[in-house]
Write a structure and sequence with these properties.
This protein is mainly alpha-helical. It is 65% helix and 0% strand. The chain is built from eleven helices and no strands.
């Protein structure tokens, strides 16, 4: 593994719990950077949950932003206990408590009065566009949250694998083989890929097999990264269950 690849991999291995504790630290710059990372990564599962609870797009956006602001303002992150296990459960429980205690206000511009606006990496339009693409169902908000979370974990693992392949000088090969890892309907047949990449069809099959194996390893790392237990298999089963059936 070359130095660039090792450095890139290490940058992904900052645990979610480490980010939580950093976001609750006393150093304002470090806390803000950690909070922004958490917001950018996990805003959508929270948004999906709030929307499924019956709030409109503007209210959901404001509530999620307010949620993160409150966590930082009250130093809740500093009191977070990784021993509780799953970061996913911690964040959803914190959101539920926030929504219970948050009184609905008549105008959105009254929310967070006097509080600094956080530079969240989403807006009402982007969030609602993504939400609107999901078929309407009667599934519980918790299912919507878990499904969105599972998709983020899968995408993070896929992004890491792509970074590894590009760092190894295999950008073109990765671009052509990636669809076979996500069961894309438009994935080219191995015979066609063999001609395009100058390899035998059997070599393509072996490469895809290795990529799938590495994808699985990275997925397990991503899941372990959000746990303070060794129960990766149980969390993996929970997330795959959330993806089963119609989207929440």
């Amino acid at each position: 593994m070359n130095d660039d690849l090792e450095h890139g991999r290490a940058s992904f291995l900052t645990t979610r719990w480490s980010l939580v504790l950093a976001a609750g630290g006393k150093g304002e710059a470090d806390s803000r950077a950690a909070l922004e990372t958490l917001c950018a990564t996990y805003w959508y599962p929270l948004y999906a949950y709030v929307r499924r609870k019956g709030h409109d797009a503007d209210a959901a956006r404001d509530l999620v932003q307010e949620f993160f602001a409150r966590l930082l303002e009250r130093e809740d992150f500093a009191r977070a206990d990784p021993a509780r296990g799953r970061f996913r459960a911690y964040l959803l429980t914190a959101l539920k408590h926030f929504l219970i205690n948050e009184r609905e206000r008549e105008h959105a511009d009254k929310r967070g009065g006097g509080r600094k606006v956080l530079p969240l990496e989403f807006g009402a339009h982007d969030a609602e566009t993504r939400f609107s693409l999901e078929p309407a169902t009667h599934d519980a908000p918790d299912k919507a949250f878990d499904r969105a979370w599972a998709l983020i974990v899968l995408q993070r693992a896929l992004d890491r694998l792509g970074s590894e392949q590009r760092a190894a000088g295999k950008a073109e090969e990765w671009q052509k083989l990636q669809p076979h890892l996500t069961t894309a309907e438009d994935a080219a047949p191995y015979s066609a890929l063999a001609g395009e990449l100058g390899k035998t069809e059997n070599a393509i099959k072996i490469t895809v097999h290795r990529l799938r194996k590495r994808y699985g390893e990275l997925l397990r790392e991503e899941i372990a990264d959000t746990l303070n237990t060794d129960d990766v298999d149980a969390e993996l089963a929970t997330l795959f269950d959330a993806l089963s059936g119609p989207p929440a």
